[in-house]
Design brief:
With 385 residues, the protein is an alpha+beta fold. It contains eleven helices and twelve strands.
């Protein structure tokens, strides 16, 4: 990968600056970031590179190696409306549109070269990575000095209101604020973050990509958000709470009879998942591998049975990981396809990928991919030799 040469070959000019925005995994705490919960994500070394050159006109030209067939997409600063044909470039348009609406003086276009190393449709937050990247770039080139938290909030705003994906803040915040070699315990109501040593001696976190193309993620995700909001509105008549994650397990048992079967299952997942996050902090602090594995397995079971977001392919991937010796495995991300993570003893790593892939292929006729996890810093400007 030679980003400078690639940019020159594409736009026939030398670039001004280079940037990198990571992807993310969530170790535990799934689907509770939009319910005011504590979550435990980390920024990872796979991510999105951005190379730019400022222009003297109002034109934005963007090219992505992940969408070669679309070629260079041209956008005018005077026409930033969502257009389906613009595909991924809508995320970029949304960022420019938000900055202008925030009364920032954005008066020049730019040439933008995007190279993403995150597998598409993997659940490792390629869209949030791109959004955070673009917010950071505009903050940098226009000397706006946005805080990392503000960068995350801008990116979430575009996702929610321009792209109409009703996500929480976790993805954007970890991609903006990630810390090398650490996960972040994140309070999604207050946006407070605490670095956590999330590696256990003798074990490796492994990302497993199902390569199952998710077809209903957006609609199902928004459906789960609405179900949680509906449940919250009912529970508020009985309990003085602002978010579902304020409920204890005892509280849930007291009020569950007010909910229909579907909402009862959704709230059960939210409340028990919050409890698992709290337990995981102590387990990681004490370097207790087996209990951590049990929490991962319980999380996946809850996401499968109570929240119903895993699907056959992810279930088979997790099943294969456990058969290959992982002490725990679970879906990571929105679900309905994408990736899972496993905690694997180091002496099993040599054969782990092969055993899991063989099992997964027998069940699904698809091959999986595997990536050992490295936790990295959040979005940043980079030097390229």
């Amino acid at each position: 990968m030679n980003l400078q040469n690639d940019f020159i070959n594409t736009f026939h000019q030398k670039p001004d600056a280079f940037y990198f925005s990571p992807g993310r995994i969530n170790l535990i705490g799934e689907h509770i970031d939009y319910n005011g919960g504590l979550v435990l994500p980390a920024a990872i070394s796979l991510g999105t590179y951005g190379v730019i050159r400022m222009r003297d006109d109002q034109l934005i030209r963007v090219f992505s190696t992940n969408f070669n067939d679309l070629g260079i997409i041209e956008i005018s600063l005077h026409d930033l409306a969502y257009k389906e044909n613009d595909n991924y470039a809508n995320y970029i348009k949304g960022v420019f549109d938000l900055f202008i609406k925030k009364h920032h003086k954005i008066n020049r276009g730019m040439d933008i070269y995007i190279h993403g190393t995150l597998p598409p449709q993997s659940g490792l937050s390629s869209s949030a990575s791109l959004l955070v990247l673009m917010v950071y770039i505009l903050s940098d080139v226009y000397h706006l000095d946005l805080s990392k938290t503000d960068i995350a909030l801008y990116a979430k705003d575009v996702e929610n209101h321009y792209m109409h994906m009703h996500c929480g803040i976790m993805d954007q915040l970890i991609i903006a604020k990630g810390i090398n070699h650490k996960a972040l315990l994140m309070h999604t109501s207050t946006l407070e973050t605490t670095p956590i040593h999330a590696f256990i001696d003798g074990y490796t976190w492994v990302i497993m990509n199902s390569h199952y193309e998710r077809k209903t993620t957006e609609s199902k995700y928004n459906e789960r958000v609405k179900e949680c909001q509906d449940a919250l509105n009912i529970i508020k008549k009985e309990k003085n709470i602002s978010e579902l994650c304020e409920l204890s397990i005892s509280d849930y048992n007291d009020i569950k009879h007010h909910l229909n079967e579907v909402l009862r299952k959704r709230v059960k997942h939210v409340v028990t998942e919050q409890n698992r996050v709290l337990k995981s902090i102590e387990v990681l602090k004490n370097q207790e591998a087996i209990p951590m594995g049990e929490l991962l397995n319980a999380s996946h079971s809850s996401l499968k049975n109570d929240y119903e977001v895993t699907g056959f392919h992810l279930d088979m991937l997790v099943e294969g990981a456990l058969l290959a010796g992982a002490i725990g495995a679970r879906v990571t991300g929105a679900g309905f396809g994408g990736c899972a993570i496993a905690l694997v003893k180091n002496n099993l790593l040599d054969q782990f990928d092969q055993i899991v892939d063989q099992y997964y292929y027998q069940k699904t006729n698809l091959h999986a991919s595997f990536y050992p996890v490295e936790f990295v810093d959040g979005v940043k400007k980079i030097e390229v030799a």
